[in-house]
Amino acid sequence: MPFGCLALRDGRTYDSMSDVTDKYEFGQILRAKEFCELCLAKDRQTDKVFVCKKFLKKDGRKVRKAAKNEIMILKLVNHPNILQLIDTFETRKEYFIIQELATGGDVFDWILDQGNYTERDASNVIRQVLEAVAYLHSLNIVHRNLKLENLMYYTENNHNKVVLRDFYLSRFENGPITEPCGTPEYLAPEVVARHRYGRPVDCWAVGVIMFILLSGNPPFYDETEEENTDLHNRIIFCRIVAGDFEFDSPYWDDISPAAKELVCRLMEVDQMLRITAQEALSHEWIAGNGASEKNLKDGVCAQFEKNFAKAKWRKAIRVTTFMQRLKNSEALTDSSAGVESSAEAGEGEGGISQGTSDDGEKLTSDGGVTSSSVSLEVTVENTSTAMSQDEGAMTGKEKQETVNVPVGPSVGTSPSDVQDPIIQTCSIPKTVQVEPVP
């Protein structure tokens, strides 16, 4: 047995805390959550600085599975546009994940700081994202949480290299996936409609990112209702399912036809017809001369500041979507066998389950939201600093034994259940029962 390790009765070997502290010196805390702490870690031998995530096992089974899932995925990937795993430790009480430290800041902030910003700059960002996504897809890995907030530059001095972060929700596509997870504005139609889905959801998300980078606006929005209300979310999701987005003037007047064509192919509603990441890399806007060199900074940055000032994308708030309400209401009438099946679904290894957000924050009873009352809980993160890298969306499976939030009209509710003219106009099928994750 290695020195400093502990062996339990089940035969498993654990690291001791001295193994961790002898190798790394832990410094500034970047973010502290109820059970997930993000801090800097300096290798004592090389003096190199990394970022460390610490998870406390005592905070529950869902937290332990979240840590295991990210470790499993990061151990398998090795790509220049993905923050690499450096080290992992498992003690009797904690998980430690040591990763590369990206210091270049968010792509969003970089755009705001530039004097000149063109389609070519956006094309360079999207190309690198597509290369990383194509690599993940070649390994049958679905990221499931691609968004602008999860992109950052690797170093301050070189803004040519973009890296992906946040692999809490990633999973292997070893069969059709049905569990809903992601950040609302980036969800693909098949996820919203609770259909079986796979790698094409990542390509849809890349399309949303591209849309934002070129116009400063989200493709799906509703300004008539207060944000994060049930009606607001219903309208957004209905538009996603219908693929109802437009190249509004004046924001898209100077955007090249090639860019618009690629956005449309990435955001194709039919996932079977949607362009793949590998195919998109050969598109003329990425590989050719389709990207314009006209300066877009004034228009794009004005919209960025407008939308982000409204906290539509970056404010750390919990959004209980109307999609979960249907599942909760159905849970009230489900048989006990159905409840047990749903509980089993929450134990899959494919990603974080209900009861936690992907930054390691427990859901509390504040506002009536509890770990057993939410079937799709989404966090839109605040990434104003380069280090806040672990907030995002969470998955949507739970035991559904109690419902502490008001049950309202939902996607998939038949007219006989709820008379809601907005929902009746959406061709969203009945909610599919979440299957146990292999």
UniProtKB/TrEMBL annotation:
Signal peptide: none annotated. Keywords: Calmodulin-binding, Cytoplasmic vesicle, Membrane. It is found in: Cytoplasmic vesicle membrane. One of its GO terms (molecular function) is calmodulin binding. GO terms for cellular component: cytoplasmic vesicle membrane; synapse. It comes from the Eukaryota. Residues 411-421 have a biased composition (Polar residues). Its cofactor is Ca(2+). Residues 335-345, 365-385 have a biased composition (Low complexity). Pfam families: Pkinase. SUPFAM superfamilies: Protein kinase-like (PK-like). PROSITE patterns: PROTEIN_KINASE_DOM. Residues 24-286 form the Protein kinase domain. Residues 331-421 are annotated as: Disordered. Gene3D superfamilies: Phosphorylase Kinase, domain 1, Transferase(Phosphotransferase) domain 1. It is a peripheral membrane protein. Interacts with calmodulin, in the presence of calcium. Belongs to the protein kinase superfamily. CAMK Ser/Thr protein kinase family. Does not appear to have detectable kinase activity. This is CaM kinase-like vesicle-associated protein.
